[in-house]
Design a protein that fits this description.
The chain is built from 16 helices and 26 strands. With 620 residues, it is an alpha+beta fold. It binds adenosine monophosphate.
């Protein structure tokens, strides 16, 4: 096992092993490193193959996964066993994705709830985290094969709009794949880094990153100030990309030779051939004026001009998003210093021309748009490794810092490897009616349960005025100053009561301790993720019991005897499930209780609404 060393004084990692940059994409993923000799960012690939690994997972009859090109071959023949676009499901519930459920040709569990989605293949269930971990494991293995050395540390990129849950899910997938995820960085930030933007310490610039891939479009506006990237705005369309370009060529040909949508549905092979030919035509037209081919004896052709007319509405759609993003960033197009192109579809000349026209300047497209994000992740990895001496490496926190939340979970406010000084705030609330105090326990470490981390400090925020549960707004702020001193402040925003404490986070912790804590977090990854899921399920279950109890106490007279009995039974069953170590059972019992209460809850709500319309309140 390679040794992990962190210099606590500088926060830099001692270089004993290469840190890789990973672009975990919706369609394709890849790994890049800074080449040890040329010192240039380089995408890893086996001889004579592409650096891109399709983000597709196929399961055989025994549930064994394969990833990449091989898995992609099963997309048409075994759609139910072949998972693509798992990234679209990261951190999502079924309710989040149900409007696009048709998009997925495999089975996404429809439980109509807010719990996280799962995918079913055969009799097994997989979370998007599991699926992403299979892809990351494959990338890790490929990298190890090419580099002939173990790879255990990585920087992984995510879209700028990913929320905390989606970022955490990506971290968890990395952990499951046996990777120590040093940092999650935004894709547009990585793309900028690949162009060398943001590497000068005195640099101040505004950048637009236009990312048009196979299935998604993102525009991000970034502000770089002294090596710190800030996302000013993001916009885009999660279902718009090069695949739509292919479809428009297909439709064009189908009209020309008289193939209907029904013909296509009935003939999967023809559909597949046409799709592949359309993609070939699109790519060919990026460098040529015309494309000709033959399918089943029919001559098919298309000129670049025709293609540009077809995709004009799609390109206009992306420009509308750009307009929104510029507006949301509260800037003008003329304030943007640089435009960076990302994603294979930006190779289309008409796209480049339109984007350049919109931003009124030439675009940066010299770096391979399929690789640029991974290359930038490698640049970031190199900075973390302390190799890039020209870059001012600000001190960084060696371990994550956070507070204990419900059920003993670690809620990270400042992830490890964050640059200091830094300040982060997050809002919490009370669990009980009239709760007058709140204990803030500060921990350091990478494990999901606080009991496995190091406790740094604890204090009580007292004097919160009596309010119903959930109403107080308690903002906890972590501030690490340039000397590495952590100041934790808790403030109830409605009443203004506050409490502050000073902690020295690195006090008494040796390089060896840090090393052990990191290795621990990887060794226990699977366990930790399962434990956290159980704690979360229990917390959710307890909350549901409490709200149901309150609802019944208030509205018992509006419910039938049968409803009351069924509810009591379902509550009891949930209560019992909470005492067991089975999160799926808890979810199931929660669902059953919800199914029973939904009809009468809706009925009572309707009554309240109609009563309100008549100008009176129902409880009075
Ligand atoms: P990405 O998701 O960034 O890997 O982008 C993949 C998309 O880029 C697919 O729709 C490809 O068909 C498209 N693409 C790749 N090469 C070209 C090219 N030379 N011209 C136009 N589109 C391309």
């Amino acid at each position: 096992m390679a040794k992990i060393g962190i210099n606590i004084a500088t926060g830099s990692l001692q270089q004993e092993e290469m840190i890789v940059g990973i672009d975990l994409g919706t369609t394709n993923s890849l790994v890049a490193i800074i080449h040890p000799e040329s010192k240039l960012p380089t995408a890893l690939k086996e001889h004579n193959t592409s650096s891109l690994v399709p983000s597709v997972v196929h399961f055989d009859a025994f549930g064994n996964p394969t990833v990449g090109e091989e898995a992609k071959n099963f997309l048409i023949t075994e759609p139910q066993n072949t998972i693509f676009s798992a990234k679209r499901l990261m951190g999502k519930s079924y309710n989040d994705i149900k409007d696009n459920a048709d998009f997925f040709t495999f089975k996404v569990i429809d439980d109509n709830t807010e719990s996280l989605v799962k995918v079913q293949v055969g009799d097994k269930f997989y979370s998007p985290i599991d699926l992403s971990s299979f892809i990351l494991k494959e990338l890790k293995q490929r990298a190890e094969h090419i580099l002939k050395t173990p790879v255990t540390k990585a920087v992984i990129t995510v879209p700028a709009y990913f929320n905390d849950a989606q970022r955490q899910a990506t971290r968890d997938a990395g952990k499951l794949a046996g990777l120590d995820v040093l940092r999650i960085i935004n894709e547009p930030t990585a793309a900028s880094l690949a162009y060398g933007l943001g590497l000068r310490k005195d640099e101040i610039a505004t950048i637009a990153v236009y990312d048009l891939g196979g299935g998604t479009f993102d525009i991000s506006i970034l502000q770089i100030t002294n090596g710190i990237f800030e996302v000013l705005s993001t916009n885009g369309d999660t279902y718009l990309g090069g695949d739509d370009f292919d479809r428009s060529i297909m439709q064009y040909w189908m009209q020309e030779v008289g193939i209907s949508n029904e013909d296509l549905k009935a003939n999967k092979e023809l559909s597949q051939t046409l799709r592949l030919k359309a993609e070939e035509a699109k790519k060919h037209l990026s460098n040529n004026e015309t494309f000709e081919t033959e399918v089943n004896g029919d001559k098919l052709s298309i000129t670049r001009a025709d293609f540009e007319t077809l995709i004009d509405p799609l390109i206009s759609k992306t420009l509308a998003s750009c307009r929104h993003a510029v507006k949301d960033a509260s800037i003008h197009v003329s304030d943007i210093d640089t435009v960076v192109m990302v994603g294979g579809s930006t190779r289309v000349p008409a796209v480049k021309k339109a984007v350049s026209g919109f931003f009124e300047k030439p675009v940066n497209d010299s770096v391979n748009p399929d690789e640029v994000v991974a290359l930038g992740a490698a640049v970031q990895a190199d900075i973390l490794a302390g190799n890039n001496k020209d870059f001012l490496l600000l001190d960084i926190t060696p371990l994550s810092l956070g507070i204990e939340t419900m059920g003993g979970l670690m809620d990270v406010l400042i992830p490890r490897n964050s640059k200091i000084p830094t300040k982060v705030g997050r809002q919490y609330t009370t669990q009980k009616d009239g709760q007058g105090g709140m204990r803030i326990s500060v921990y350091q470490g990478e494990r999901d349960l606080v009991q496995d981390n190091r406790k740094l400090a604890e204090f009580n925020l007292t004097g919160i005025p009596g309010m119903p549960a959930g109403l107080p707004k308690i903002e906890v702020t972590f501030l690490i100053n340039a000397d590495g001193i952590l100041v934790v402040k808790a403030k109830e925003l409605r009443s203004g009561v506050e409490q502050t404490i000073e902690v020295k986070p690195q006090y008494g912790i040796s390089d060896k301790d840090v090393e052990l804590m990191l290795l621990d977090s990887i060794t226990h990854a699977k366990d930790d993720i399962a434990k956290r899921a159980l704690v979360e399920a229990r917390t959710e279950g307890e909350q549901l019991l409490a709200t149901t109890e309150r609802f019944i106490a208030k509205n018992a007279n509006l419910l039938t005897q049968d409803e009351l009995v069924a509810t009591a039974e379902a509550m009891q069953a949930l209560q019992l499930a909470l005492t067991m170590e089975d999160k799926d059972l808890i979810h199931k019992k929660q669902e059953e209780l919800n199914d029973i209460s939904r009809p009468y809850a809706e009925r009572v709500m309707d009554m309240a609404v109609s009563a309100a319309m008549k100008g009176r309140k129902i409880e009075e």
